Amino acid sequence: MYRNLLYPTDGSTGSKAAAEHARALASSFDATVHVLHVVDARHAGLGASGSFLSDEQSGMSGQSAEAGYEGMGTSDVDDAVTERAEAVVEETVAALGDAETVTAIEVGTPHSTILKYADEHDVDAIVMGTHGRTGVERYLLGSVTEKIVRMADVPVLTIRSDDG
């Protein structure tokens, strides 16, 4: 039933909450988990990669967290963004335990990139966390997870963080 699962992650508490569910599904169905981190390119002009990231505000959250990179040149920022993305992916793979994984780091608009990846890699289901934002905060920031739920051609399992 599920051979390929997509687990998009931005390293936030909300996305980390879904790791156990992705691992359990992968184990139950002997599925491969595709770990995808999207560096948000909507923040053009903030470095060649297009994004500034911090521990809780990263590419998929739709926010720009410039404070951690003030005073850095473009090349240094790009290196820091790349290192951050690689660290998120490595941490996620470790959280998935012995599940078979495929990893990818993409640059683009998060929801579009996730949906495109799902289509291109024959994904059977998407497992992702949600930040649990409501009201004005959700309206202003948008919701990558909500867009995925509405637009995906495959089932989407969403896990809400207790910290939401």
Could you please describe the fold and organization of this structure?
This protein has 164 residues and is α/β, with parallel strands linked by helices. It is 38% helix and 20% strand. It has six helices and five strands, in the order βααβαβαβααβ. It has a five-stranded parallel beta sheet with strand order 3-2-1-4-5, sandwiched between helices. Helix 3 links the parallel strand 2 (32-40) and strand 3 (101-108). The longest helix has 22 residues, at 74-95. The protein is globular. The termini are far apart. Mean pLDDT is 78; it is low at 44-73.
Overall mean pLDDT score?
78
What is the overall silhouette? globular
How much β-strand is present in the residues? Answer: 15-25%
Q: Give the low-confidence spans.
A: 44-73
Q: What is the strand arrangement across the widest sheet?
A: 3-2-1-4-5
Question: What percent of the residues sit in helical stretches (DSSP H or I)?
Answer: 25-40%
What's the oligomerization state?
A: single chain
- Helix and strand content put the structural class at alpha/beta
Main sheet: strands, sense, barrel: 5 strands, parallel
So how many helices? Answer: 6
Number of E-type strands = 5
Distance between the termini: 31 Å
Order of helices and strands: EHHEHEHEHHE
User: What integer value in Å does the Rg equal?
Assistant: 15 Å
